[in-house]
Amino acid sequence: MSNKETYAKAWEGGDKPYESSYGKLMMWFFLITDTLTFSAFLAAYGFSRFKFEDVWPIAEEVFTHFPFLHGEHPLLFVALMTFILIMSSVTMVLAVNFGHKMQKNKVILWLSLTIVGGIMFLGSQAWEWGHFIHGDKGGIETKMEYTVHIAEGEKLSSVYKLMDIDKYSDADENPLKYFALEDLTSEMKEGFDVQNIKSLIEKLEAKPEFNIRKANRTYLSNEESINYIKENATKVVVGANLVDNEYGHRLFADYFFFITGFHGFHVFSGVILLIIILINTIKGTYEKRGHYEMVEKVGLYWHFVDLVWVFVFTFFYLV
Amino acid sequence: MSDNQHNGNWWIWKVFWILLGLTTFEVLLGMFKPEFLVNTIFLGTKLLNHVFIILTIIKAAYIVLTFMHLGFEKKSLKWTILLPALVLVPYLLFIILSEGVHAYIVL
Q1: E strand or H helix that includes residue A250
Q2: Could you tell me how far CA B77 lies from the centroid of its own chain?
Q3: Cβ within 8 Å of B, A 204-233
Q4: Please, are residues B46 and B37 in contact by the beta-carbon 8 Å criterion?
Q5: B4 pLDDT exceeds 50?
Q6: A74 and B56 in contact by Cβ < 8 A?
Q7: Among the ranges given (A62-71, A126-135, A164-173, A284-293), the one the predictor scored with the smallest mean pLDDT
Q8: pLDDT digits (tens, 9 = 90+) for A49-59
């Protein structure tokens, strides 16, 4: 065959320079674009973190709880989530592997387990979000937009402990006014904010063992704390949303919701895709087609989701 | 595509144990924070963070090259996929993170 002939053949689509099917190639191209999207998110997170280096919340102080366990267990729950996702990646490879061997029943088994893993991960993320939104120790927002925290000496304490509040009590009995109340106008909220700060100062005066830890993690004395609150405090913040954030800089919560939310949405889409191909496998669609390439393609996507989590885990929780 | 990769599942479990081991190691480091790694500052950040990043990249490589099978694809496909990420991502990080440090200094 002359060069000319090969050339013509290649441009008629005869050659397969990648020796990969159309579907897999397109999945890879999608994953490249998605890689760049997630890199941009994490880079933006890095930008803000470097910009507010002194006052950025420490992830270990934010994510400290584990379901049904008391006390502080930093990292443990995220480690479990990581384990679940890695495990589901393994079951996915097994499903793909048995697909190559055309063993339908084993594909069904391992695909089902992958779906279970995906749903467990989504459940864990929902728990984590719930906990993050509900709040842990409470914070005090100041005029410079940074949140300060209550401490006992050099140890982080909580707004609830200072103000003698049972965190889980009803809104009516709660001395922190307006939390858990709905349909309030912004004027009403402001009135309550002033009231909350006032009772906070009273409590600080009555309990000299409590003080303030500033956003840059320096501790004030009780007296300094009272002056600091009088001058700077705007409101007591409980929990986190896109506007207020008890854990520290408000951008931290925004990034948390955005990045883990976007990743969670990927996991959710993955679970839907897995359910669709599971149904097709049970119906025998791929058996008839003669190959299980669709399982392989969804598998690529699923591993990518795991891959992204590996990076989110490091840059959001560890570093 | 090497065929021996498809015989048996032992390699899948091998990669699983490697990933699990690395993650456990990361979590333990994050919990106990060895003083030497926290106090040594290298290239503007703690040595501990460098350890985390290196371990993460190793995990990522295992996932991409074995689970996603990229290590066994044709060289042309492999590099078409890897190069954009390997060039663009460090570039983006370098630009944006140094901008962040600059913003910290000036603002």
Answers
A1: helix A250-255
A2: 21
A3: none
A4: yes
A5: no
A6: no
A7: A164-173
A8: 999 988 999 88
Query: Rounded to an integer, what distance in angstroms lies between the CA atom of residue A152 and that of residue A222?
Result: 9
- Is A158 within 8 Å of A136 (Cβ atoms)? yes
Q: What is the DSSP letter of A207?
A: -
Q: Kindly report the nearest CA distance between residue A124 and chain B, in angstroms.
A: 18
Give the span between the Cα atoms of A2 and A77, in whole angstroms: 63
Q: Which of A48, A30, A27 is nearest to A38 (CA)?
A: A30
CB proximity list for A259: less than 8 A, separation 6 or greater: A38, A41, A42, A45, A312, A316
Q: What is the DSSP string of B33-92?
A: --HHHHH-EETTEEHHHHHHHHHHHHHHHHIIIIIT-GGGS-HHHHHHHHHHHHHHHHHH
Instruction: Give B105 to chain A, closest Cα distance, Å.
Output: 8
3-state secondary structure of A155: strand
Q: How much of chain A exceeds pLDDT 90, in percent?
A: 50
For chain A, how many helices (H) and strands (E)?
A: 12, 5
Decide: A210 and A229 in contact? Cβ < 8 Å: no
Domains of chain A: 20-134+274-318 (1.20.120.80), 139-238 (no CATH)
Report how far residue A81's alpha carbon sits from residue B63's, in angstroms, rounded to the nearest whole number.
17
Check pLDDT > 80 for residue A127: yes
Which residue type, as a one-letter code, is found at position A85?
L
Asked if the Cβ–Cβ distance from B67 to A74 is below 8 Å, we say no
